[in-house]
Amino acid sequence: MLGFAGTRNWVYLQHIDGAFQRIRRRTFLGLHLILFGLPWLQIDGNPALMLDLPDRRLYSFGAIFTATDTILLVLVLLFLAFALFFFTSLFGRLWCGYACPQTVLLDAWVRPIERWIEGERTTRIRRDSAGFSWARAGRKAAKWTLFALAAFVVSMSFMSFFTPTRELWSGNASGVSYALVGIFAAGWFLDFTWFREQFCNYLCPYARFQSAMTDDNTLIIAYDPARGDPRGGKDAKKDGRCIECSKCVTTCPQGIDIRDGFQLECITCARCIDACTDVMGRFGHDSLIGYSNLATLAGRRTRFWRPRTVAYAAALTTIVAVGAALVTVRVPFEASVSRMPGSLYTVDDDGWVRNTYLLRLANNRPGASQSFTVSVEGITDAEVLTPTVELKEAEGRMVAMVVRAPAIAATARTLPLRVHVMSESGERVLDTTFKTAAGGSGP
Measured between alpha carbons, how far is 402 from 354 in angstroms, rounded to an integer? Predict the structure, then answer.
């Protein structure tokens, strides 16, 4: 971490294994499958999950969402926000220790590579303190080369959620896509080589606002001072007290001492639990560090449901219900209508009043074409002069829509008009106006 003098205080992490680390590795495997496997998965010929920013289209597990579905995007973002609040109030920073990309990539890629090339913690400290040597420079160069390769691969996979995967990996994507890959890769390379735990401690806002979402009943990692103190001494091993081995400190990726109490820097990765379990287990005692909460440590009863968790759960339930209702009534096509520029109305030779509009249609039905028909309501005897429109999947088109009405039906200069756009998958209703010749001789 950065010290008070502004210099980098390196955290030389000691490798540790244990029950919680095995759980974390399984979580990492699942997240790697999502990052590297999901972009290659296709449903009905479309990406399983991809945000196409140029075309403002989201492919999501067989459905296509466009800008007209923005309300669903808002609901998804609200759901993620309240889910974060809800789970943080219950489980603290479990996300940081088990699922955050920063933690996953550091533990799954960076630290194994570093340990493979530069050795264990004590070896790395000894070599770094020995000053420059060609052997040390060679090891650093090899490590940074693999870090750069890892940063590139991760950035390409991340970019595959925004650009067609085959185009990107075959070199046929746009220059903007590769420029973004370069920017992301440079950021990851800086993080892998230097920034590391400082991202969590200084840059990530989650560590800062989590204090507003947690309370004494929230799950944390805590040292048990009642069993562990006083630390050290010749009888510590026999009594089951802390033997001052400091393994909980040397295995902490944040460089903190959990025995000093709850700290915002803790990402609940449980490395200190596995370290203490390993050490104390050799002497026949349970770990002095474990998942707990402040209420338990103070001898009070733990409450799972509190006002804040009830409020977060109610908000999540409401968002899910509203989202489900919107998805149920959603139709997989876009339609909008606007008046033809520069045209209010014309009077045909038979005396009927004609209004011309632009009708924009887009087929968002995955894997199928759709045909669209149009009708209107609101004006007696009005007729629509628009042919049936056939659109392929993901195709959009703008067509002219003419509405004619007898002049006798006009009782005001502007009448409300409702347009029905129908297809095999559903119907959209659009509201517009119809300009008449009432009260004047021309437009």
Answer: 7
Residue 372: CB atoms within 10 A of its CB come to: 23
The tokens 């399983």 sit on which residue?
A: 48
The tokens for 409 are 């039906």
Q: Which of 7-11, 108-112, 345-349, 364-368 has the highest mean pLDDT?
A: 108-112
Q: What is the dihedral of CA 71, 72, 73, 78, to 10 degrees?
A: 90
Q: How far is CA 399 from the centre of its chain?
A: 38
Residue holding tokens 């693999």?
Answer: 146
* Cα distance between residue 124 and residue 108, in whole Å: 19
Does the pLDDT of residue 5 top 70, yes or no?
A: no
Q: Is the pLDDT of residue 28 over 80?
A: yes
Is the model's pLDDT at 198 over the cut of 80?
yes
- What are 209-266's pLDDT values in tens digits? 777 788 899 999 999 999 999 999 889 999 999 999 999 999 999 989 999 988 888 9
45-397-63 Cα angle (round to 5): 30
Contact (Cβ atoms closer than 8 angstroms) between residue 345 and residue 353: yes
Q: Which class for 331: exposed (0-12), middle (13-18), buried (19 or more C-beta within 10 A)?
A: middle
- Number of Cβ atoms within 10 Å of the Cβ of 329: 7
Average pLDDT for the chain: 91
pLDDT in tens, 334-375: 899 999 888 888 999 988 999 999 999 999 888 889 999 999
User: For residue 16, how many C-alpha atoms fall within 13 Å in the half-sphere facing its CB?
Assistant: 26
What are the Cα distances from residue 130, in Å, to 15, 140, 194?
Answer: 22, 14, 20
433 has which bridge partners? 416
Count of Cβ atoms closer than 10 Å to residue 190 Cβ: 14
> CA–CA separation, 111 vs 353, rounded Å?
76
Distance CA 340, CA 165 (A): 40
Residues 127-146: pLDDT tens digits?
Answer: 999 989 999 999 999 999 99
